[in-house]
Specification:
The chain is α+β, with helices and mostly antiparallel strands. Helices cover 55% and strands 8% of the residues. It is built from 19 helices and eight strands. The protein has an eight-stranded antiparallel β-sheet with strand order 4-3-2-1-5-6-7-8, covered by helices on one side. A hairpin with a 5-residue loop joins strand 7 and strand 8. Helix 1 runs antiparallel to helix 4 and helix 2 packs antiparallel against helix 4. It is globular, with a radius of gyration of 27 Å.
Length: 561
C-alpha cells in the first residue's frame, strides 16, 4: 500500500513538473534576475555610469529642484547608494486644468525609470505621508484625491547637472515577466502565474515524499552516469535550497492571493486615513524657502544611526513644509508589504529645520504584519548586498532544479518513446525553453547597447528582440538534431555572456577594469557575473559536444558490426 502511494505521488511529481515545467523555469529564471533589477537597469543606462558620489548630493539636488520645479508641492531626493551611483530627484507636476485622467501609481524608492526622465511621467517615490491639499482644493473632502504623477530626473552626483539616459525596458521587463508574463491582461497573467505556483508547491511536497533517502542522496553525486547524474543534480539543487524553495513558492501564493482568493482579504485592509481638516487649516499661500539641508542631514544621521538614503518634502514652499528623512538599511519586513519601507524616519519642519519627532511605520494588525513578512521575504527589497546574493544563488539553484527535472523526464523516456512525437515535442521545448530563454536574455542586453539612442519606442524594440531571439531558439531544434541543438545554443549563450564585458567597454565610459579601480561595484559585479555565467555555458557546450561525439562513435561501431 505504501509503495503504491509513493508510486502515485511519483506520477504526480513527474507530470505536474513536466506540464508546467517550462513556465516554472521562466518564472525562476526571470525572478532570480529580478533580485538585481535595479543594478541591471543601471547597467543598461550607460549614460549614468560616469556619475560618482561626492558627499554634497543633497544640496546640489535641492538647488536643482529650486530652479526646475519651484512651484511643485512635493519634492523627493534619492541619494546615491550601493545600488545606484546617481542622484534621483522627483517632483510633483501641476496637472492641467482640464486633465481628469487618473495617472498610474507612483514607483517605489530605488526603481529607476525605464525612459529618459522628462520625456514621460515616471512613477517615482513620493512622501509616504498623505499629500496636503491646496487651499482651494478643500471642497471634496470625501472623495479620494487624484494621484498626480511625479517627474523623475537623474543628476550627476558630482556636478548636479541633469543626465538624460536612454530609454530602456531595463531589469523591470524581467521583473514584470516574472510577475505577470507579457502580452496579455495583467490579471490574466497573474492568474496563470498563480496556477503555476500552486503546481510548484505540489511538485515540492510530492518530491519530498517520493525520495526515501533524500538527505543521504544529497551527499551523493555520480558523475558520467547518464540519467542518474541528472537525478543527483536535481536532488542536490532541490535539497540545498529547500527552505528557500518552500518559502519563495508559498510567499508567491500569498502575494497573489488577492487575485486568487479575492473574497478573503478583509484582514489586510489598511487603517483609515487620518482626518486632514486640521492640517488644511495650517496651509498658507505665502512661499517660503527650504532651510539648508547640511545641518539637518547631519542631525538626522546622528539620531537614526545611519547614512541618509532619501529626503521627501511635502507642502513644498509653504510654512507647514515637512521633511521626512529615510535612513539607509533600516528596512522593516513587517511594516510594509514590499519590505522596502523604513520602520523609522526623522521628521523636520522644512522652513526652519526644527526636529518634529520620529515617524514609526507599523502594520495595522497581525494579519497584515504576517502578510507583510511573507511578501517582503519574496521580494527581498529589505536585503543588503550579501543577503541579496544569497537569494540570487538560491534562485539560480531553483532554476537548475526545474531545468534538470525536465531533462530527466526526457532521458527516462529515451527507450520507451524514442521516436514518438511527444518525446520530440518535450525535447524541443526543453531546448527552446531553457537555453532559448538564456540566449534571449543575452540578446536583450546586447540590443540595449546596439540599438540607436534616439530610436522611437526603444524599450519596445528591446523586448521585440528578446522574443524574436527566443522564438528562433525554439524553432532551431526543429531543424537540427537534439544534441547538436543543445551544443549550438549553449555555444551561443557562452558567446553572448562572455563577450558582454567587451560590449560594455566599447559602449560605456566605465569598463570592467576602470569599474574595479573606481570602486563601482555595480558595473564590476554585473560584468563579472555574466562572464562567469558565460564560462559555465561554454563548459556545458563542451560537455554536450563530447557526448555528441561519443554517441556518433558508438553508432558507427554498431553499424560496422
Amino acid at each position: 500500500m505504501r509503495e503504491k502511494f509513493r508510486q502515485s505521488i511519483g506520477w504526480l511529481h513527474s507530470w505536474s513538473g513536466l506540464i508546467i515545467g517550462w513556465l516554472l523555469f521562466a518564472i525562476f529564471f526571470t525572478g532570480t534576475y529580478s533580485y538585481f533589477r535595479n543594478e541591471i537597469t543601471y547597467w543598461m543606462q550607460p549614460e549614468l555610469h560616469g556619475s560618482a558620489p561626492a558627499g554634497n548630493e543633497a544640496m546640489l539636488a535641492a538647488d536643482y529642484l529650486d530652479r526646475v520645479a519651484p512651484e511643485s508641492s512635493s519634492w523627493s531626493i534619492t541619494l546615491p547608494t550601493e545600488r545606484s551611483r546617481v542622484t534621483q530627484v522627483a517632483f510633483r507636476e501641476q496637472p492641467a486644468a482640464q486633465n481628469t485622467e487618473r495617472p498610474r501609481r507612483e514607483r517605489q524608492p530605488g526603481e529607476e525609470s525605464s525612459r529618459p526622465a522628462g520625456e514621460r511621467r515616471e512613477r517615482a517615490a513620493a512622501p509616504e505621508s498623505r499629500e496636503q491639499p491646496e487651499a482651494g482644493n478643500t471642497q471634496q473632502t470625501d472623495a479620494s484625491p487624484m494621484r498626480i504623477p511625479m517627474a523623475v530626473h537623474y543628476l550627476d552626483s558630482q556636478t548636479g547637472e541633469r543626465i538624460i539616459p536612454r530609454e530602456t525596458s531595463g531589469g523591470t521587463f524581467l521583473y514584470r515577466f516574472h510577475v505577470e508574463l507579457y502580452g496579455m491582461d495583467r490579471i490574466t497573467g497573474r492568474k496563470i502565474i498563480g496556477a503555476a505556483t500552486m503546481v510548484m508547491l505540489i511538485a515540492i511536497i510530492s518530491g519530498i515524499i517520493i525520495h526515501k533517502r533524500i538527505f543521504a542522496d544529497f551527499f551523493t553525486f555520480r558523475r558520467k552516469k547518464g540519467t542518474r547524474t541528472w537525478i543527483d543534480a536535481h536532488i542536490f539543487t532541490a535539497v540545498l535550497a529547500l527552505p528557500y524553495h518552500i518559502m519563495i513558492t508559498y510567499s508567491g501564493l500569498v502575494l497573489l492571493m488577492m487575485i486568487l482568493l479575492p473574497w478573503n482579504t478583509d484582514g489586510l485592509r489598511r487603517m483609515p486615513a487620518q482626518n486632514q481638516q486640521q492640517r488644511q487649516a495650517e496651509i498658507v499661500t505665502e512661499r517660503v524657502k527650504l532651510t539648508p539641508l547640511a545641518p539637518i542631514l547631519q542631525d538626522a544621521e546622528e539620531r537614526l544611526g545611519s547614512k541618509i538614503e532619501r529626503i521627501a518634502i511635502s507642502n513644498q514652499g509653504k510654512n507647514n513644509m515637512i521633511m521626512e528623512i529615510t535612513p539607509v538599511g533600516r528596512k522593516s519586513i513587517t511594516a510594509t508589504g514590499r519590505g522596502s519601507g523604513s520602520s523609522v524616519k526623522a521628521v523636520y519642519k522644512g522652513s526652519n529645520g526644527r526636529f518634529m519627532g520620529e515617524s514609526v511605520t507599523e502594520a495595522p494588525n497581525k494579519i497584515a504584519a504576517t502578510m507583510n513578512v511573507l511578501s517582503s521575504l519574496h521580494l527581498a527589497r529589505f536585503a543588503d548586498t550579501f543577503t541579496r546574493w544569497l537569494f540570487f544563488i538560491s534562485g539560480a539553484l531553483g532554476t537548475v532544479m526545474v531545468g534538470t527535472g525536465l531533462i530527466i523526464w526526457t532521458n527516462k523516456k529515451t527507450k520507451s518513446m524514442d521516436k514518438s512525437f511527444g518525446r520530440k515535442l518535450v525535447e524541443v521545448l526543453n531546448i527552446g525553453g531553457i537555453t532559448g530563454l538564456i540566449a534571449a536574455t543575452g540578446v536583450h542586453f546586447w540590443s540595449n547597447r546596439l540599438l540607436p539612442f534616439d530610436l522611437a519606442s526603444r524599450s519596445g524594440w528591446e523586448i521585440r528582440m528578446f522574443f524574436t531571439a527566443w522564438l528562433l531558439c525554439c524553432l532551431h531544434p526543429l531543424i537540427r538534431p537534439a544534441k547538436k541543438a543543445w551544443t549550438e545554443q549553449l555555444t551561443l549563450c557562452a558567446a553572448l555572456y562572455c563577450l558582454m564585458p567587451v560590449l560594455n567597454a566599447f559602449t560605456s565610459k566605465v569598463n570592467l577594469f576602470s569599474a574595479i579601480v573606481q570602486g563601482n561595484a555595480i558595473i564590476a559585479g554585473f560584468d563579472l557575473t555574466v562572464f562567469g555565467l558565460g564560462v559555465l555555458f561554454a563548459y556545458a557546450a563542451w560537455k554536450t559536444s563530447g557526448i555528441e561525439m561519443k554517441t556518433a562513435v558508438n553508432t558507427a561501431m554498431q553499424e560496422a558490426r
